[in-house]
Amino acid sequence: MSALVEVRDLAKVFDVSAPWLNRVVEGKPRQFVYAVDGVSFSIERGKTLALVGESGCGKSTVARLLVGLYQPTRGDVRFDGQPTDAAQNAAGLRTLRKRMQMIFQDPYASLNPRWKVLDIVGEPLREHGLVDKAQGTDGLRRQVSELLMSVGLAAADCDKFPHQFSGGQRQRISIARALATQPEFLVCDEPTSALDVSVQAQVLNIMKDLQRSRGLTYLFISHNLAVVRHVADDVGVMYLGRLVEVAPKLELFSHPRHPYTRMLLDAIPDIHMSGRARTPVQGEVPNPLNPPSGCAFHPRCPHANARCSSERPALINFQGIHIACHAVEEGRI
Amino acid sequence: MALQPLLEVKHLRVEFPTRHGTLLALDDISFDIAPGEILGVVGESGAGKSLTGAAIIGLLEPPGRIAGGEIRLAGQRIDNLPYEDMRKIRGRQIGAIFQDPLTSLNPLYTIGRQLTETILTHLPVSAEEARQRAIRLLQETGIPAAEQRIDQYPHQFSGGMRQRVVIALALAAEPKLIVADEPTTALDVSIQAQIISLLKRLCKDHGAAVMLVTHDMGVIAETCDRVAVLYAGRVAEIGPVGEVIHRPAHPYTAGLMGSIPAMDDTRERLLQIDGAMPRLNAIPLGCAFNPRCEQVMDRCRVERPELFDAGATRAACWLVGAGT
Amino acid sequence: MTTSTAPGAWARFFDGDVWHSFRNSPVAILAAVIAAICVIGSVFAPWLAPYDPYDLASLQLLDSRLPPAWVEGGDSRYLLGTDDQGRDMLSALMYGARISLLVGLASVILSLVVGVGLGLLAGFAGGKVDAFIMRVCDVMLSFPSILIALLIDGVGRAMFPNAHESLAFGVLIIAISLSGWVQYARTVRGSTMVERNKEYVQAARVIGVAPLRIMFKHVLPNVTGPVLVLATIQVAAAILTEATLSFLGVGVPPTSPSLGTLIRVGNDFLFSGEWWITIFPGIVLVLIALSVNLLGDWLRDALNPRLR
């Protein structure tokens, strides 16, 4: 079965240099941030791939690259075999947009505060000409009501404004909007990070139900490993713009191989293991403007050697998982 | 109780007068903190946990005000003190750590100046001694090269480092109580772990009690001795952290624990509590949780339960206090 | 889950914080009352004014230079006195205010359209477009607005020396609006840049909505708040600018005198003791500008710390 989404050597570089005048007068060099630096993965139809990592690892940038909010500096994204690059596929891009949608992190900023819910959820229908004209003006309302009810809201909520809803309800409206064009692929950028725990449970349950009933494929971005363990089939761990480990969920959580993955898992405060002793963690995520040479994690890694500081490890296939680590490859850990 | 409690909060009520009427944000909250103890105050947004912290430090934003009850620090009432007296207590007796390390420090002054200023305000020491104390504090909080970095500005530190400076600042005047409001929420997971263990260790070393306000149960499990669960401005359950997490007596606490995905979880679906926490202007009669409770009884809809003993914890639930 | 129907727009407005803040602010109410009187008096001048001061046939030269009715020598038929040609001051004021308000409002609307449009474009497009528009703004701001208005007006007159009256008005309105649009552009640009990064705009882009449509349908409704405040205050500024220009003699054509023209005309008679010909237009001008400014101040505070 071919993958629905295939990403090869994806990279995005941001130019954060000072303005030209400052550079000339003060002699400052050009500065670049390699937000995403050569990422490759694929997602099978109907499955969920989770991307985890801490701030600055580039997972949100990957999400935005996939849906076309950013143009990649390098690399290749294919959806159902077709390239998503605007230059290569201008005609097909519009159809592609119907088939993939995005859910954002902030429930308060992801809905236009001046629009009614009817217009917010109906916008994709209008944009892609999917409004049921046979029913006249009520067609849109009926379709939006159905969408709202499928996420557990009421049909009467059509005429309300976002500020009349709670965070969890707004996130459901976002989900309803994302489902309007009946997409096959949903990119979810930290959809529950801004929600309370009990509300998060409601939203995660809805997302799982929808995946089952509609055969959706998810790319789920999160920094919360416990949530990821609950929703994902496969997990990719990112550090400073690179993928360090990709593995099926159970494998990753029971046998984490990359030192960074191990460190992350060790760092999670877990409510059921209160009082468990933890290995202390060293250092902080380095400045993305000045990444370490070779393997980005080597300054914090207890297993780093000379090769790690000079040669960047490639993501290789290893015992059924993908990993980018010299120590693992050499069998040292 | 052998020792007198350091902090006693009795029947605290905080209200917000608005043009639509007065909203009761905290409704009869009571708890104690023993000297050197770490108490967690956990709840979801709108439960009132940050307000509790603010009321204790005396930093309630007007028009919010304390409408009833009392707060005692080491036996002395502090909720009704005039501004000047409260200012002396803040810093010297009570230290504060807030969520955002970026805005907790003044960007225009070096951290050394902010530290020494706090020390000199509250402790009768010389300027040189204050600086030495500041350097020692920074070393304790794990900031490398403290003697050089003491003269740097906040923007020269990373997020995790800044939060360490904030902790140092909170401990600078040797307070007996630290109120920490979501100290790790804005930090990365690996830094969170470092800061949590630092906070725990330093407070034990300095003999300070901590009131840790957060929505993150994992942090509570790792750090606290006891925990109070807030719901809609009221205490739902309070007790030792292991008991509250593993043997909750209140249905809300049970629902909360069940909805958190855990690392050894094998469930397909998370436990979900239908509905949402009521808004301040729509708190139901009787027990605030009754519309969402699976085990609701008629009594719950009418009478508000107090905190009853439920084995090792105390819960505000008629299921526990059925006999009364 | 609540299922009540949403209230209509008017019900929402009167229940809202803005109206409530208005009701509680005596200054705002007073300012609104004064502004309303001036506006009604000027808009309905042809019906409300006791005389038509531009009807040359009705002028009585014998009645010229009469002081206000309550002063000795005044005539109760001319409440505020007459000018040197026998025109009733009250009527002249009402017609004059009419011209002033017309020119003021028209120029504000024009500079609103230009400024908001350019600000949206600059904020949304970013890059070179933004840089270019902002440099234009900087250049325009380095000229005093009166100078710009004078320049455009002068060029207009030079180009069309025997211009018809309405053309003169048009040139004047364009002159005043071009001297005032920069404020809107800057404010809107700042707000647009904030809104552009918000997730509802990104959601629209993911859906595939065209950028122009996003700009007008999504971003514009969310940046109108500060624009409204600015526009209210700019109305006063525009009216004063027009008055200044007319005072200098390069404003409205002399056949339709505005308050500024009246002040200029009356200036000559100030020292001969006929103070009412220049003072009353001045008072009305101040009242209009003051009340509009106060309303703008109140609106800014009312819209700002809104309880959510």
Give a verbal description of the structure.
The complex is a heterotrimer of chains A (333), B (324) and C (308). Chain A is 34% helix and 21% strand. With 333 residues, chain A is of the alpha/beta class. The mean pLDDT of chain A is 88. Chain B contains eleven helices and twelve strands. In chain B, strand 7, helix 8 and strand 8 form a beta-alpha-beta unit. In chain B, helix 4 (111-122) packs across helix 5 and helix 7 packs parallel to helix 8. Chain B starts with 6 loop residues before the first strand and ends in a 9-residue tail after the last strand. The model of chain B has no long low-confidence stretch (mean pLDDT 88). In chain C, 42% of the residues are buried. Chain C has 14 helices and no strands. The chains are: A alpha/beta (333), B alpha/beta (324), C mainly alpha (308). Chains in contact: A-B, A-C. At the A-B interface, helix 6, helix 7, helix 8 and helix 10 of A face helix 8, helix 9, helix 10 and helix 11 of B.
Q: What distinguishing features does this structure have?
A:
heterotrimer; A: 333 residues; alpha/beta; Rossmann fold; 4-stranded antiparallel β-sheet; 21% strand; globular; B: 324 residues; 8-stranded mixed β-sheet; 23% strand
Short description:
The complex is a heterotrimer of chains A (333), B (324) and C (308). By secondary structure, chain B is α/β, with parallel strands linked by helices.
CATH homologous superfamily (4th level) name of the largest domain in chain B? P-loop containing nucleotide triphosphate hydrolases
Proportion of residues in helical segments of chain B: 25-40%
Largest interface by residue count? A-B, 40 and 46 residues
Extract low-pLDDT stretches of chain B: none
The name CATH uses for the topology of chain A is: Rossmann fold
Strand ordering within the main sheet of chain B: 6-7-8-3-9-10-12-11
What is the terminal-to-terminal distance of chain B?
25 Å
Quick check: average pLDDT of chain B? 88
Order of helices and strands of chain A: EHEEHEEHEHHHEHEHEEHHHEEH
Structural class of chain B: alpha/beta
The structural class of chain A is alpha/beta
* Binned strand content of chain B: 15-25%
User: What is the alpha-carbon Rg of chain A in Å?
Assistant: 22 Å
Query: What is the CATH T-level topology of the largest domain in chain B?
Result: Rossmann fold
Residue share in helix of chain A: 25-40%
Instruction: Tell how many strands the DSSP assignment of chain B holds.
Output: 12
- The 3D shape of chain A can be described as globular
What's the CATH class label of chain A?
A: Alpha Beta
Number of helices of chain B: 11
In DSSP terms (H or I, runs of 4 or more residues), the helix count of chain A works out at 12
